[in-house]
Amino acid sequence: MKKKILVVDDEESLVRLITYNLNKEGYTTVSAYDGTTALETARRENPDLVILDLMLPGMDGLDVCRQMRSEHIYTPIIILTAKDEEIDKVVGLELGADDYVTKPFSVRELLARIKAVLRRQQDLPENDLPTIRTVGNFTIKTESYEIFMDDKRLDLTLKEYELLEVLLNNQGRVLKRDYLLEALWGYSVEANTRVLDVHISKLREKIGDNTREPNYIKTVRGLGYKFEVKTDV
User: Fold this and answer.
1) pLDDT value at position 206?
2) I need a labelling partner for 72 at 20 to 30 A (CA). Which of 44, 157, 171, 222 fits?
3) Architecture of domain 132-227 in CATH?
4) Given a cut of 70, is residue 154 above it in pLDDT?
5) pTM for this one?
6) Which of 14, 195, 196, 4 is nearest to 100 (CA)?
């Protein structure tokens, strides 16, 4: 079955360019030119991926992303940002966007990102671990995509859940940055390690980890991250 992609941008010429190339690659497309229509289309069409510009009339891209995630619509989102929109780029990732592409971009680059995100969604490895398991003071419920810390449910985006689950499943091991990027985002590109940094920062905040002296998510300089759980003394 062809993958359906929702393309959202207020520049009609750019939407035409993107949809033309997506159709050539075998995708089906739907489009929207403002935030309100984008949200309605995402609800109605149930696309496999959303390409979302941040600078939209009315409801902007950040609000669209925020609302989709609040409604538990976990469709992968690739946000489009301008070079000087670093803050919006980071906020978009914090709200649950899966990746970003900076304008101006090549169609080839965008297609590569789309394929990586969709491959990640389609080729998730089968997990033969129990659907409910405990790691230290954390409880993972894979069927409902929930993680509890000290019996309190953590408010996580889908990508934050996936990242924390990987860390917990490999607690005590050093996970390299390129491994995490490949496992969770489908690519390993040095220029995009900011994506990982943002999600690590948000996870630390949500589990009450001290950024300077974290108790759980430890930074291993030059390599990546290691998760350490509390043990009873």
Assistant:
1) 92
2) 171
3) Orthogonal Bundle (1.10)
4) yes
5) 0.67
6) 195
